[in-house]
Amino acid sequence: MSQHEPEASGLAVGGAMFAGVLMVIVGFFEMIAGLAAISNDEIFVKTENYLFNFDVTTWGWIHLILGVVVAAAGLAVIAGRIWGGLVAIALATLVAVANFFWIPYYPFWSILTIALAVWVIWALTRPGVYRQ
């Protein structure tokens, strides 16, 4: 029995590259949303009686920090670093969770970001995407 890694398809490799680019873009947009929430939290609708009711400014800091880190991880994915892919998967999970809690404040963007985070995780877990 020979053990070998399956050959990466062009779709998988291209998907991983696109995931890295998407992470940089989403990270940038997360930074903008974070800065908007920090500078003027009145632009976001506040849902009353929400179970996870943090101050909008707190959410702004969370999104700003996540945005910076996600964009940096996206650059590592684009560079083909294995550690970048692992960090990117963990960060995409955190982004999805953070945006789940952000839904009452910014529903369309939150749902879109969750979907993109799930796609990034899928793209980065395809067999053979990373080679030594």
Task: Write up this protein.
With 132 residues, the protein is mainly alpha-helical. The longest helix is centred in the first third of the chain and has 30 residues, at 10-39. The protein has 4 helices and no strands. The protein has helices at residues 10-39, 56-78, 82-102, 107-124. α1 (10-39) runs antiparallel to α2 and α2 (56-78) packs antiparallel against α3. The protein has one domain (10-39, 52-124).
Largest sheet: none
Compute the number of structural domains. 1
In terms of DSSP E residues, the strand content is under 5%
- Percent range of helical residues: 55-70%
The total of beta strands comes to: 0
Class based on secondary structure composition and strand pairing:
mainly alpha
**Alpha plus pi helix count:** 4
Average per-residue pLDDT, rounded, comes to 82
Computed Rg: 17 Å
Termini separation: 23 Å
Order of helices and strands: HHHH
**What's the quaternary structure here?**
single chain
Q: What is the approximate shape?
A: elongated
Question: What structural keywords apply?
Answer:
132 residues, elongated, mainly alpha
Brief characterization of the structure:
Helix 1 runs antiparallel to helix 4. With 132 residues, this protein is an all-alpha fold. It is built from four helices and no strands.
SSE layout:
Layout: H1 10-39, H2 56-78, H3 82-102, H4 107-124
Helix pairs in contact: 1-2, 1-4, 2-3, 3-4
